[in-house]
Fold these 2 entries.
Entry 1:
Amino acid sequence: MNLYHNVRAQWLAYLVFYLFLAAVPLVVDDNFLLNQLSTYGVYGMLALSISLCWGFGGILNLGQGIAFGLGAYGMAMTMQMQSQDASNPMPPFMLNNSLDHLPLLWKPFANTGVGMVLALVVPTLFCLVFGGLMFRARVSGPFFAIMTLAMLSAWGTLILDMQPYTNGVNGITPPAPLHLGEFTLDPYSPTAYWTVLGLLVVATVVAKLMTLSRFGLVVQAIRNDAERVRFLGYSVAGYETAIYTISGFFAAVAGCLWVTLTQYVSPAQFDTTFSLSMVIWAGIGGRMSLMGAIFGAFLIQGAQSYLGDAFLNTWLLILGAFFILVVRFLPKGLIGLVESALGRLGRKRGHDNGGSVPAQQMLPQPGE
Amino acid sequence: MGFFEIRDLCKSFDTVTVINQFSIELVEQTLCCLVGPNGAGKTTTMDLITGRQKPTSGQIMFCDEDITGLDEHEIARRGIGRKFQVPAVFRDLTVKQNLEVACSRSTNPVKNFFRFREPVFAAKLEEVLALTGLGPRLNTEAGILSHGETQWLEIGMVLMQDPRLLLFDEPVAGMTEQEIEKTAEIFNRLKKTHSLVVVEHDMAFVKQIADVVTVMHMGSLLAQGSIGEIEANERVREVYLGDAED
């Protein structure tokens, strides 16, 4: 048996991976670096959401920026309203856009709790409705990918156009970090880093359990042959909508976290390049593996921060070429190298102590 | 009202009529072989029964319920299972996972989040493995099975589903003599507890298994009866058997 497919070994790998990441603030005292690493955690969560949707469900989503951006705007509005009070009820940019009272759209965000819930619920509901409509009409494969891309551009344009409500291209820059009661979440602190990491761990555990459940099994069957799944009595549209919505929810959480770290959001979050890069992270790291996708996000974003400055515009070319090479030669991504290495190791061991009995029959099979 | 009945089924694509006033009735626990020359509309009939295509007119009744025009998954849940002409299995999943997916007692996506195994799966698995002999291949990816094994896997999947009515579209295509023998044996055992409709070209195989033979021609019913009656039927000889036995 290949150790890579052993579920217990996979949990152990997650444990080691996250313990290592949790220890990072103990050795890094540069707060700006720590903040940067925290944003990588957010990107990791985005890659995780893509891996669920694309890797496990086979639904290529080029518009994950919608859920991320809507979550980010919701959180930014909540944080902005925290800086307003009775004497000064309107964010400054609205005055510049000659609004004379706080628009209805903004009112719920005056309450931090309601605002944060809305920041998660609105994008999730959007995915539920949009996904439901698409999948029920059996839009799939490249057609769905194009629809998500179109929807992404529509949202970007809408937000750009609603200048008095969203501050257009300048975006929203909440002046103070998020505070919850007495507690203030300093984006440059180890606490912020651990908050992001903690949520990433929770997301990973939930996602992993989901892939192991019967739901996850059916979703993977749909990736293989949706038509066949229908004849077994499963509502394919229901499953596709569910996995797409859950993936969108994770992206919305990532959007909220991202704003607390950067105190900034703009229509750039709805750019196609950003949504495409999420797909590239997951593709390079390994879309069929949750950890592979997260690792891909770390790797590419890390490289972009350091090499991107050195190469400027050439960086996109390098990234594109790298993506093509990975897709062509490593369809399972970089994590596929680990799979085949462990597979070779397992076979070797099997031959060493196998004798006349094939090694596979001597080992207990997982899941029995 | 009976177990399964098709009444005046019609299906046309634009001006081409594929199924024309086709009616049959099935008795529970029998095996009906659906035969007919190429283009007679056998596979289309299967598609119409299972909801893959919607009939232009006509009615399909199953267990006193009108199932005409329902979606595929709704028809499957009512107890009609289907094996495809080209074996359709989930290639990335192992044989065991394929069978697990097919064991579709609970189909609600939300409930399935919290389900990690199907209670009846272990018992069903033993039963299906005993019939299909896929035991040694349980942890093999379905994509690398041989053609025969893939056929067995799909038959296993339909059995896992435990439908009341099983539809098989050319189940023995590409099988060896021994495998055909084994399939016949399984079918003869199955018809004691289930009802089967088998589309097949291999007349030797049909003789081994059929209780009733239904002959289709140009989308309509040509003849129906025991294998002996069908072989003696002049019109059937004309359109079908004559050609097939050459």
Entry 2:
Amino acid sequence: MTTFSFAQDTPWKCAACDQPLIPRKMSITYLKSEFHVELMACPQCNMTLVEEDLAVGKMFEVEQLLEDK
Amino acid sequence: MDQKQLREFESHCIQEEHPYCTAACPIHVDVRGFMAFMAKGKLKDARKILDRSMPFPEILGRICDHPCEQACIRNQLDESLNIHGLEFHCVSNTSQVLKLPKLPGKGGKVLVFGSGLTAMTAALDLARKGRQSTIISSASELGGSILEIDDTILPLESRETAVQMLERYDVTITLNQKITPERITELTNDCDAVLFDLDTISLDILPADRIEADPISLHIGGKNFAGGGSLTGENFSPIKQVADGRRAALSIERFLQNASLTAQRTGEGATTTRLYTSLEGVAVLPQKTQKEQHLSPEEATEEAGRCIQCECMECVKQCQFLQAYKEYPKTLVRKIFNNESIVQGTRQANTMINSCSLCNQCTVICPNDFPVAEVCRTAREQLVQAKHMPPSAHEFALEDMAFSLSDTCSLLKHQPGTDSSQYLYFPGCQLSGSSPETVIRSYQFLCDHLDGNVGIMLSCCGIPAHWAGQPTQFEQVLTAFTDAVNSMGMPTVITACSSCLSIFKEFTDDISVTSLWEVLDSLENLPASTAELPSTMAVFDPCTAREQKLVRQSVRNLCSKIGIEIDEFPFNAELADCCGYGGLMQFANQNLGERTAKAKGERSPHPGLAYCAMCRDNLVSTGKPIAHLLDFLFPDPDVNSLLERPNPGFSGRHENRARLKQKISESLFQETDFTTAPHSAIELLIEPQVIELMNRRHILEEDVRKVIHHVNQNRSYFINPENNRRLAKYRPIRVTYWVEYSEEDSGYRIHNCYSHRMVLPEDQP
């Protein structure tokens, strides 16, 4: 299974755990489709970071594509 | 939509109908395409068009009697195109470019008696179709009547080229034959079909048992056909002879295939056309050369440039939606049909279907009333029903509707101090969201001046659900509305919104509905406006008032009463544009919505006056100075520039609606018990550019508050140690909202907001 990595260095840290973020493989879903991706997340509580570029860029494109399937 | 409905819809659109010249041409030469190339000096491409439809361009291009010119629409303006002169110029300066294929031989032996253009054309057409065709004539050369034409017009080489062409397609040419009835009987014994060219064969040697020629098939009984011409007393017409040859060839082909000789042949020969072409704005430009004169290359280019390339496109010319998708209704409906037919794969037309404003302007413009809006709206219902409607298209608008209907905004009351209503004021959700103060002032005015008690209902008419193709939701809203009016004792409903008016009139029974404008127009004591008026204003009718003539008239009467001079402009009233809100266009296609609003505003250079709150807000967003009529009738003493009052945006609308309910409840009904959500106390500090971004991204201040409230409890946010900003997310239902913010003494400063619909692992339900 192909995993697309969107992990990149980030200044954001998890406030609750006081941890710098690390790349983490995970599945994200939309409309019955599942994608294997690598995103930055907190190593302790696993909270995932989605930065603006990804949300309004690639992620939005894929959402639109899936909505027309 | 099934195939039959598709055809029915398609037939309404006349854009693909023949232009006038082509319809009048018995062999339907694409004169419009020919002219387009000639105007660019592309003679070879123009010649290709002649090669495709004319059997012998060298001959017909020189001598055609051009019935097309009489049909040319320029005749209504100055004079027709010199089509004949241009064809002459083309064939005189080019040789054959396009060589039509010869199909493989498929049997069928055809004898053609005669030597005129009918015989030549039929023999050529049949040979191209793979039939073995033989011309038999008593003449010593081919041509018949055209041999009498002067050599300066039709030189020998032209006829020679035609003979060469016949030979190239293996037509056998047998000249100098003695043709008698006996010889004909003998020759036709072992052939499958026979054609007599009446340009050169006299009727008396035709088979004795012949019947009168059928005008559609030219069949004269048995295996015999006859057509063409001048010996039957008709005037000599080269194009008629060619057309007869072509018609006979097609009949013989059908005869050889045992097919019907007459079925579905209405399109052959000269026809009428349903095309409509407007001459508005076309400059008067008579021909510069004499008809008989040979054209120089420059003259030919210039003359061809007079062709206006007839087409309809009347709806497309006005509609931003059709322009954006480069469609006219016929192609649009076909794409929608194909979209519906997709079982697996991408539905490419979803966004297009959701981008129509459903405003019906095109239908009013269309000579055949093509119902584009109905087609698009039905397609939306179909998408919803099949569970294929993209969630992002209308969810935001439907949530906005749900908010207007919720307890936070909705209200139903009799006039303060009374327990019955003769009238029920229904200002509509968008006026409440845009200008709550004018709702209060206009309500008080109605209470003071109407003869009878005036109740008030803050709610929504449900049109967003109707536009979104959600019949169940729409029905629920209408039922709630009907029940509410019933519970008030069936008062007359007064709406301030044309959309509400149109919905109630179309979808409710037994409820009496009128517009605020008609009511105000009927009153003696209009409020004395203190607002300063521009000298001339343009009333922008909303698209939903298209069928509300009395409403439009009342608005103008009111303007005149308060001293506003109106600039009437085209494409207003029953032809008015949409502002981009209609059909939820601006939600499914933001950029198109903005372009549509801009185009509406640009229809008049004068400051605008709207009586639809959405029109006003959308137009003012494009930079158009525009006020709402209620702004003048009931001006807010605190607002100076009525023409520039900003669009409150989506968050502002929510807040205005909620505050309106609260204010009316408190000031008129002394109710003070309001429960507020725990997050509503969060104070936000937002710069205008962030507000603008939030509006574009459909993120409400309410959403931002929810995010901050959610993460504050357990510090579940990210933090940037470089600037101490926080980044937090929350997914209330279907959308994950992200907010970048920092905490200040007076509240939370919002730096950025964005959202996505994809679900992260920790947000999985």
